[in-house]
Amino acid sequence: MIINHPLLGPRDAAEFVYLGDAALIDRPDWQAEDAAEAFHAYGYLRDNPAGVHRELWYHEQGDRSWLVVTRDTVSHEITAVELARDVARARGRGR
Amino acid sequence: MSQIHRIGGGLIDRATEITFTFNGKAMRGHPGDTLASALLANGQRLVGRSFKYHRPRGIFTAGSEEPNALVELRKGAAQEPNTRATVAELFDGLEARSQNHRGSLEFDLMAVTDLLSPFLSAGFYYKTFMWPRAFWEKLYEPAIRASAGLGRLTMEEDPDTYDKGYLHCDLLVIGAGPSGLMAARTAARAGARVIVADEDFVMGGRLNAETLEVNGRPGADWAAGVVAELAAMENVRLMPRSTVYGAYDHGTYGVLERCTDHLATSGGKPRQVLWRVYSRHAVLAAGATERPIAFGNNDRPGVMLAGAVRAYANRWGVAPGRRVAVFTNNDDGWRTAADLAAKGIEVPAVIDTRDAPAVCDVPGARHVRGASVMDTRGRKGLRQITLTDGQMIDVDCLAVSGGWNPNVHLTCHQRGRPAWRDDLAAFVPGRDLPPGMVVAGAANGAMTLALALREGFAAAEALGYADKSDLPRAEDEPRECAPVWHVPQSRARAWLDLQNDVTVKDVKQAHQEGFRAVEHLKRYTTLGMATDQGKTANIPALAIMADCTGRTIPETGTTIFRPPYTPVPIGALAGRARGRDFRPYRLTPSHRWAEAHGASFVEVGNWLRAQWFAREGEQGWRDSVDREVLMTRGSVGICDVTTLGKIDIQGRDAGEFLNRVYCNGFATLAVGKVRYGLMLREDGIAYDDGTTARLGENHYVMTTTTANAVTVFRRLEFARQCLWPDLDVHLISTTDGWAQFAVAGPNARKLLRKVVDTEHDLSNEAFPFMACAEVTVCGGMPARLFRISFSGELAYEVAVPARYGNAMMGVLMEAGAEFDAVPYGTEALGVMRIEKGHAAGNELNGQTTAHNLGMGRMVSQKKDCIGNVLSQRPEMLHEDAVKLVGFRPVDRATGLIAGSHFIRQGDAATMENDQGWMSSVAYSPSLGHSIGLGFLKRGDARMGEILRAVSPVHGREMEVEVVSAHFINPDGERLRG
User: Fold this and answer.
1) ipTM greater than cut 0.95
2) pTM for this predicted structure
3) How would DSSP label each residue in A54-86?
4) pLDDT digit string, tens, across residues B854-871
5) Do the chains contact at B869 and A19, CB–CB below 8 Å?
6) In chain A, positions 54-83, which contact chain B (CB-CB < 8 Å)?
7) Is there a contact between A56 and B725 if contact means CB atoms under 8 Å apart?
């Protein structure tokens, strides 16, 4: 597969390490009332869609960017590649 | 033997004669021959024995689809089994041997299996060798493997080298026949970067095997002209002898180039190169494969595909027989008859299953309308055929054509399914092509030359490469086909899959026994599972299954096509990653010093580390390790600890970041101090540990374990970028940047005092336990000094830029000479950490928590950190949970066994009574007996208890006493002294 890195252009998937569902960005609040349940869901429950999937890839053999890649798990078509840092900020993560 | 079957014409160099041997017999051929064409020229029809029945077999095709003519090439370590003679390019001195027979090829002792064939039908293994069960591994399987199977491996190391490479192009053209060459020329003239790959050693595809004309000239000449034009263009790379074996995601293709297989030796160059080709677009112009018709005894040497017969006559100037009959269900078979007759070969009859007028005039041939061949005779070579109308005709070769199948394989490598076309009676590419791929020519069902040329041109044009040149002129040759798959009047066995010996009867039996889905049919009969992957066999077999079930062929469906298109040697897939180079390994900075001082090395992750340093007179590794431990604890020892991961962490929020990735607090760590840190996984399990030093206000250096150096860094980047993107913190791995040495033992300070420049105060007051500083050594060289201890002794770690590491080891040893300083390896390191009760990889094994490790109170509940929330789950904090404690054998002379499980005295050694396990053991030279660390239920409350330590794996058990994990200096005054 080829991943079109937002900073570096098209790179072979072999340069990357795969982590999984981009929902891992949404780490729960440790002080919330339901923190235990929320962390349980965060740690163990994943959707496994046959189709469009947003997932985390790490450019370990490159610039060490974490990327959010939108990929169809059936056809492997990649429709979007974003810097995970930007995605995290857009989802309200900061300090 | 001379070339008795050589006739005129062809693309061979007749001026040059080369010699080769087949089963030791010397034969002659010409450059341009394949081994198959040369064997036929020399009159060698029998070339092998079949897989299961050991039937005599000959050459069946003229290409990579060959099921029969598998041979061993070359000798010694370079010997290669199962090579298709039809694609092996002849060279002077080639040695070839037939396979799969006991005794000679002519008198195979195993041919008796053919007489047993009634018992050896589909599924016979599963039915016959069921009982007794124990016989399978010892008797049945070895016997079956000895009698079946193809070529043999030499078991010697492959002397050749293989390489891998990467190519980029706008357009990859797969196949250099008429449509491929047209597509390539059109795109190349439009300026595209084009790669043309073809499995053959002469480009041109079927044009080289036909008498068809392009622009009024022989097709082969036209092809040669286009190839010459392309070869002269800078934007074109021609790759003959290169098979595109797989279509992968996003325009990536796998290509195997055979660089030196056509030479006597590779001359030190890579024999084959596995290319990964990145393409914007691809034109699949892979042509078509002819299929046979099944009839009785259709497997004899001399029965060949019609297109192959005329290829041998036209391209190689070889007559596959003296009297050649043609059996066809389509117009194309007639072309073989006409071409042979034109070459002066006797064609006694054209047998056409269709009751229709002759397609063309074939001088001397009888046209037998509406009839079929139903049987053949000739034990080691065809002598006679019997027709359904009872006629018998003496022939030594029968050219069979059952129509042509487009080579759709690569269109299906990404889930695509082919579509059935009734007019061709064949599958053509479906709509679901790999993105970027266009199919042209016969591969697309365009079965005439004029169509193929036009489609090649159109394919390039459709991809945006326009060229104003005229289309070359060619005719649309007749290609009508009336499908006939099997001659039902046949009484003898009729073969479908020649390579795996699958007959029509086997397919019918599979149907009767319920294996009707194509994937079941394939696995039950082994149809299409041989090295040829059923290229000539699958479609006729599907047709017979369709007939049995009353469904159509498209309803019956095909099995899934997967890469590779033709076999790819394991050597090519491995490339240079073999033997010692299979996995890269790294050397520590002091490796050369260690080598020169008798070190034995051990792989730790991908590092080679010194395991111990043997001295003369020592009887075994234990002698060396015991000495290293005692001398370190007695005076001072030095160990290269560079392999531990080092991560430089800087930024205004670096402290806060550390506070969140370690479970214990880091907010209060002062500049110039070091702290032990434990990292958890988000699920609360202990993950990694190490120390982090604060070198400056916003500057920290973290160490990780050797094993997790890469993954800890990855996780920290994840936390930095994905979890807290606005923290001001930056990371860089400096594992390779600094050579680091542990200097441990009561004389460590005295030794370092001689090395560290005098302006740095090393006194216990100025530089106490857990201090750190940036210092200079050896008169001004920058270094880092940490007062940390893994051994429990007064100890330091000193780091210098990596390139000085080897010299630094020498400097430290020289400075330590007066103290009898000793270098120690990973074994002594391990013994000392067990003596001190420090957890390592055996304890941080992915199953244990901080609570288990006795560090539960370190997990701060006052802050957010990774793993904090889930580590507090009640089950993980259970009072019955295992705790890390020490063990010693009640009989001190006994050696403990790592992996033993603890059982209460009097209890049976069962899972229910399991109390925990021993994770690390060592012989402690300091105590004079074996010691162990392990996890025991409520272990911290069971000091002094005697337990059984049971190791069913070793069939041993012993009594052990629960003790503190801190065997040595539990109060720690040594490391603080």
Assistant:
1) yes
2) 0.91
3) EEEEE-TTTT--EEEEEEETTT--EEEEEEHHH
4) 999 999 888 999 999 999
5) no
6) 56, 58, 60, 64-66, 74-78, 83
7) no
